[in-house]
């Protein structure tokens, strides 16, 4: 999906960037813009018989959500960090240029993962093949989450680090709510004050999570690559953070939690506190999709109405869980 934040470049600029990444003159060159995502401009670059993915950060003059500062830097650092510790199918960093000399924004070249995103092919797969993909996602997610840290926080936002999950998540929600207030965005069915009080009343549930671990935080179907009907890799590591493993998309995204994912991850039961945290994180995801609307300059009222309806349902679900 296109968005105001995507900083597309002229072919001449893309050629210069590619020559720097390869360290050689170009004998052949093709740049294909890719869809998906809302922040970075992304291209498939084919040059000198090599394929790479190029991601360009938004221009510094573009207004983004507060927690989206330095996302491309975070991806470059996290890909390097994870590749040094785990053997899982993810891209490798080829070049991360922050000089803003060739291009006015930082950019990142990474290796290409073969295949097509799962959201585009899942209906073409057999039930068994879909089960295998989600089981593998569970295994890979568990490996990522096996890397632990001493504090909760976003690597690209040093000021976000805390020693408790509640303080970290209060900061996450407060930042998001303040972004909405800054745009005078009206959230249907609930006030900002009601939302904040609801979040703050769940300190005990948040702090039931004691151990921060590495979270990909965006393994939705569009970031799962499939080749020859099998999972070929996981992409888009820009939103990695140190937090509660239940923040992962397969636990707290949209729809029911896939049993094949749970089997691959190695978790099949949830405590009452875990169910409350899942609900809280689902509220956060829906709130983020609501508040990003004026920043992305979306005009799709259907999308806004759908996500705010989802937000209202999840708030009601959390209140039920709190009364159990």
Describe the model.
This protein has about 325 residues and is α+β, with helices and mostly antiparallel strands. The chain is built from eleven helices and twelve strands. Strands 1-2-3-5-4 form a five-stranded antiparallel β-sheet, sandwiched between helices. A hairpin with a 6-residue loop joins strand 1 and strand 2. Helix 4 (about 125-145) crosses helix 9 (about 260-265), helix 5 (about 165-180) packs antiparallel against helix 6 and helix 5 packs parallel to helix 10 (about 270-295). The protein is globular, with a radius of gyration of 20 Å. The mean pLDDT is about 95.
**Distance N terminus to C terminus?**
41 Å
Order of helices and strands: HEEEHEEEHHEEHHHEEEEHHHH
Q: Judging from the principal axes of the Cα atoms, what is the shape?
A: globular
Query: Count the strands?
Result: 12
Structural class of the helices, strands and pairings? alpha+beta
SS summary, helix count: 11
Alpha carbon gyration radius: 20 Å
Assign a percent range to the helix content: 40-55%
Strand content: 15-25%
Low-pLDDT stretches: none
The overall average pLDDT, rounded, is: 96
Strand order of the largest sheet: 1-2-3-5-4
The profile of the biggest β sheet is: 5 strands, antiparallel
Labels describing this entry:
324 residues; 5-stranded antiparallel beta sheet
Provide the fold topology.
Elements: H1 11-22, E1 29-34, E2 41-47, E3 50-56, H2 71-83, E4 93-97, E5 107-111, E6 116-117, H3 118-121, H4 127-145, E7 152-154, E8 157-162, H5 165-182, H6 192-200, H7 203-206, E9 213-215, E10 224-227, E11 230-234, E12 241-243, H8 249-252, H9 259-265, H10 272-296, H11 301-322
Antiparallel strand pairs: 1-2, 2-3, 3-5, 4-5, 6-10, 7-8, 9-12, 10-11
Helix pairs in contact: 4-9, 5-6, 5-10, 10-11
